[in-house]
Amino acid sequence: MEQAELLDKIQNRTKFLRNKFSESDVNYLSGELSQLIFKEEEILTPFLDPAQRQILKELAGNDFSLQEFGGYHDFEKARVIIRKDWQYQEVNSFEVALFEINYNQKFSQISHGQILGVLANSGIQLSAFGDIITDGQGRWQFFAKQELADFFQNEIFKIGSTHVKIKKLPINHVLPVVDEHEENSYIVSSLRLDAVVSALSRISRKQGQGKITDGEIKINWHEEHDFNIMVKMDDVISIRHLGRIKIINITTTRKGRYCLEVYLWQSKNHKIKRH
């Protein structure tokens, strides 16, 4: 395919996706593909969340090869190698490094939120690091760009009030990961997003609509501003500062209401109300 023809396809997809997804994400990823058309043999992205990778897949169509790796089997964030043609990529091609947080587990505890806060406020971009994982017994690890190994090991010495030491490990020394979700159910009057948000947060429907229009709600990692949208099975709904749920089943009650069975991941500081 000629370069001009391929570029035209990318531009048309970009225009369409701007109305569907985050415009800044669409523009950034479209720019990466356009750069690849004219210059590079391949591009290695920073860590992308599932929503960003969905955008990239829709932009790329069948015209580019995409391979992704986030450090372990059940990754959420991952780096992607984009090529014009398919070529198998070894794990080290993704330049993903594994770090363990060493601290005195006998006298201290640290949390996912504390680790994320330190990483996010360390002066690097959120896209520079990937998932934060735990074995549920006090050990914590995270993934980041290989090039930042010295920074993490030489600059981060405290998480919360706990003194820590960051150690780089071989990528195959990943913890047996424990998913800290809970299972719960919620009765809602409607499957509309505002009704679900109000039920999860124990607030009024109008307040739920305010959270949505203020950009505090994401569905499947995309910010959602339409409170009329209907949720469905397997949707992941995030509420800023509170946590997130994944809908695993929807049934109806005898009174015509809906029962949502969910997996629930809660913020340590502000919690989604449990039923």
TrEMBL record:
Residues 92-172 form the Ribosome-associated protein quality control protein P2 RNA-binding domain. Pfam families: YlmH_RBD. The keyword Magnesium does not apply. Keywords: RNA-binding. It comes from the Bacteria. InterPro entries: Nucleotide-bd_a/b_plait_sf, RqcP2_RBD. Signal peptide: none annotated. SUPFAM superfamilies: Alpha-L RNA-binding motif. One of its GO terms (molecular function) is RNA binding. PANTHER family: MITOCHONDRIAL TRANSCRIPTION RESCUE FACTOR 1. This is Photosystem II S4 domain-containing protein. It comes from Lactobacillus psittaci DSM 15354.
